[in-house]
């Protein structure tokens, strides 16, 4: 009879028996029967399992090599037909495009076969895009590798099996002796045993050949995929570089448009309004009382201030003088509006710099001068323009108190603008000053 008790949370299973013996495993105790024993695997089982894994790996190599030989033969049969179709269709543009499209599909189907074969039998799971030209090179190399390596490995494998089977047969049923002689030594051995040993050695060579062929095929496929991925990445980087430069040009063009609208539209209307107000204040104009005269003077003052602000805003949005006269005159105009002494050193020596880099250089100087005037408490700013064979250098140095934050909105925006032309921006601003902003813009 069984009964279950649980003193202290443990489970006790009791069996009423005559010997009263108690056995326990873990938190269970069994009375009247021996407890369960831990079974240990025999070492021979582990050896058999390891051997089976090795044999399975060898078999996968051999199957992958044989299937590679089959796909190489298939590719050898298909590619000449495809090439002939492309040559025949070459004189006719419309037909040429359709045939080229079909040929590309056939080539990618053959590559897909190789991808599935290597994934199933060689453990190769690399994937990625590739160009049609590189695909043709891969298929041509694949034919050579598959035919030569597969044929050699298959011959070695078949020869090894023939030697082993024949040698064991002779050794078992028609044994005879053979003498192997070397200078100074002789070996007497069984002819059948000798054939089996030679077959075993040839089998090892066949396995090594299969492993080498499969490894070469995996490397070749990785070359195809990685080269295609690299080419696509390079193409994408080039596209992003072009689009980034296009965005920068679009932003500058929009700045120019806004400046023109302010200068030719809003500013002209305000000037016209100011002229009307001036005519009202002339002698012989409408009679105004003291309050009306005061309001007219206030309106004239506000209109003059509005004109000045509009001109300043238009200059800040985009200075027209930059397009009309170049970078150095624009920087001299900026120095006149800076509110502190700004010295411009033109060390370009008459060398030309393209407009996008001139625009970037102007905004770098403007932001640095603005920070020096508003935040650094500087008394003077020095701007230097230099150029060598590979880059255009803009250096802005002020004698302010320093401590400029390169991660601030103004300087970080400048860094992005400089990076848009593949340049670099560095800021050296220790506490106590001075501050140096250095932009290096590479030249094409």
Strand and helix layout:
Layout: E1 2-5, E2 11-15, E3 22-25, E4 28-31, H1 43-89, H2 93-121, H3 132-173, E5 177-182, E6 185-190, H4 191-280, H5 290-317, H6 320-325, H7 327-337, E7 342-346, H8 355-374, E8 381-387, E9 391-398, H9 409-419, E10 424-428, E11 435-442
Parallel strand pairs: 2-4, 7-8
Antiparallel strand pairs: 1-2, 3-4, 5-6, 8-9, 9-11, 10-11
Detailed description of the structure:
The chain is α+β, with helices and mostly antiparallel strands and 444 residues long. It folds into 4 domains: 2-31, no CATH class; 57-238, no CATH class; 255-315; 327-442, Histidine kinase-like ATPase, C-terminal domain (Heat Shock Protein 90, 2-Layer Sandwich). The protein has helices at 43-89, 93-121, 132-173, 191-280, 290-317, 320-325, 327-337, 355-374, 409-419; strands at 2-5, 11-15, 22-25, 28-31, 177-182, 185-190, 342-346, 381-387, 391-398, 424-428, 435-442. The strands form 3 sheets. A 5-stranded mixed beta sheet has the order 7-8-9-11-10. Strands 1-2-4-3 form a 4-stranded mixed beta sheet, with no helix packed on it. The N and C termini lie far apart (96 Å). The model is unreliable at 1-33 (pLDDT under 50).
């Amino acid at each position: 009879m069984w009964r279950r008790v649980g003193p202290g949370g443990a489970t006790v299973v009791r069996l009423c028996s005559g010997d009263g013996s108690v056995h326990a495993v873990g938190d269970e105790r069994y009375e009247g029967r021996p407890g369960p024993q831990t079974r240990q695997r025999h070492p021979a089982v582990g050896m058999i399992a390891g051997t089976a894994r090795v044999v399975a790996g060898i078999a996968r190599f051999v199957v992958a090599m044989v299937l590679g030989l089959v796909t190489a033969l298939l590719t050898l049969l298909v590619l000449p037909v495809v090439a002939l179709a492309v040559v025949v269709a070459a004189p006719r543009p419309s037909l040429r495009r359709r045939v080229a499209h079909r040929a590309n599909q056939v080539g990618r189907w053959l590559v897909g076969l190789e991808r599935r074969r290597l994934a199933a039998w060689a453990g190769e799971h690399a994937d990625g895009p590739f160009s049609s030209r590189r695909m043709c090179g891969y298929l041509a190399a694949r034919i050579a590798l598959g035919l030569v390596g597969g044929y050699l490995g298959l011959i070695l494998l078949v020869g090894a099996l023939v030697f082993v089977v024949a040698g064991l047969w002779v050794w078992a049923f028609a044994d005879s002796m053979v003498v192997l002689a070397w200078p100074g030594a002789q070996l007497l051995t069984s002819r059948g045993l000798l054939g089996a040993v030679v077959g075993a050695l040839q089998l090892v060579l066949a396995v090594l050949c299969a492993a080498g062929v499969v490894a070469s095929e995996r490397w070749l496929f990785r070359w195809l995929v990685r080269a295609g991925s690299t080419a696509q990445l390079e193409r994408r980087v080039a596209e992003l570089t072009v689009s980034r430069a296009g965005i920068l040009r679009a932003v500058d063009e929009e700045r120019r448009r806004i400046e023109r609208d302010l200068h030719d539209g809003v500013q002209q209307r305000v000037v016209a309004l100011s002229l009307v107000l001036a005519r009202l204040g002339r002698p012989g104009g409408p009679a105004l009382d003291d309050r009306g005269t005061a309001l007219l003077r206030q309106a004239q003052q506000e209109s003059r201030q509005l004109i000045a602000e509009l001109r300043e805003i238009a200059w800040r949005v985009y200075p027209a003088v930059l397009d009309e006269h170049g970078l150095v005159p624009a920087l001299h105009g900026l120095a006149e509006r800076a509110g502190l002494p700004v010295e411009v050193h033109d060390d370009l020596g008459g060398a030309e710099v393209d407009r996008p880099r001139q625009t970037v250089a102007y905004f770098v100087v403007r932001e640095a001068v603005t920070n020096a005037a508003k935040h650094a408490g500087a008394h003077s700013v020095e701007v230097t323009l230099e150029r060598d064979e590979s880059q255009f250098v803009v250096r802005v140095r002020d004698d302010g108190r320093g401590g400029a934050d390169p991660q601030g909105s103004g300087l970080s925006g400048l860094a992005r603008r400089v990076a848009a032309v593949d340049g670099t921006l560095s800021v050296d601003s220790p506490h106590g000053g001075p501050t140096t902003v250095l932009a290096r813009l590479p030249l094409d």
